[in-house]
TrEMBL record:
GO terms for molecular function: N-acetyltransferase activity. Residues 68-211 form the N-acetyltransferase domain. Gene3D superfamilies: 3.40.630.30. Keywords: Transferase. SUPFAM superfamilies: Acyl-CoA N-acyltransferases (Nat) (SSF55729). It comes from the Eukaryota. This is Putative N-acetyltransferase camello.
């Protein structure tokens, strides 16, 4: 992994961090749309609409047009869901990275830099739902720098920080469409502990599932 330096976030990294996060999340729209199309409810609605219009109109043109419009609308639902999550994140923790991650001893935000350019990010903070654990967040690597071991190095950075702080484990959440992330986490020892559907209407319609992973650590010391 040549010319890669992992360091703590600096204020001048803000724009690059937001861009990497936004592009990374937007990449999941196509796979999420395909997941929606595979759902039995979606297929049933498409079939019913097509057959009903074909029977009533005696023409292929109207049902094909209706199905096309339905698919376009369904994709917009997926885009809306991701854009809403991106906007919320940019307005919350990614709008005040220093306040959220760098002002407390048990949280941190790192970037990976290649030839002076920020190409990846990761962060952690105490997990609200899992006392005694830190939650890995905001893992994202630029497409141009993937499969270079950067994500694995960043996971190791979080694990080392977690161990040094005396926490028992690292936990994280990822989605069913982030298959590469799942393989990465499992390859370094994370175990899936539960899965659940996002409690929002659009996500429920899509059956959009989140996975929780956990990496247990051997603690060498106690927290300050």
């Amino acid at each position: 992994m040549a010319n890669i330096q992992v360091r703590k976030y600096r204020d001048e990294d803000a724009e690059a961090v937001r861009e990497i996060f936004t592009l990374g999340m937007s990449e999941h729209v196509p796979s999420s749309f395909m997941h929606l199309l595979k759902q039995p409810l979606t297929q049933m609605v498409l079939m019913c609409v097509f057959c009903a219009l074909l029977t009533s109109s005696k023409s292929f043109l109207l049902p094909i047009l209706a199905v096309t419009l339905f698919l376009a609308g369904a994709r917009q639902v997926v885009v809306y869901m991701f854009n809403r999550y991106i906007d919320t994140s940019l307005r919350k923790d990614l709008n005040s990275i220093r306040d959220t991650y760098l002002k407390h001893k048990d949280s941190c935000f790192w970037v990976a830099e290649s030839d002076g350019r920020v190409v990846a990010t990761v962060a952690c903070l105490p997990a609200e739902h899992a006392p005694g654990c830190l939650e890995l967040k905001r893992m994202s690597v630029c497409r141009s720098h993937r499969r270079m071991g950067i994500a694995k190095t960043l996971c190791g950075t979080v694990a080392e920080f977690t161990r040094d702080r005396g926490f028992a484990a690292v936990v994280l959440f990822t989605s069913l469409v982030q298959t590469d992330a799942q393989k990465l986490y499992e390859s370094i020892g994370f175990e899936k502990t539960r899965e659940f559907v996002v409690p929002e209407l659009a996500a429920k319609i899509m059956n959009f599932t989140l996975f929780e992973y956990r990496l247990d650590l051997q603690r060498d010391g106690k927290r300050d």
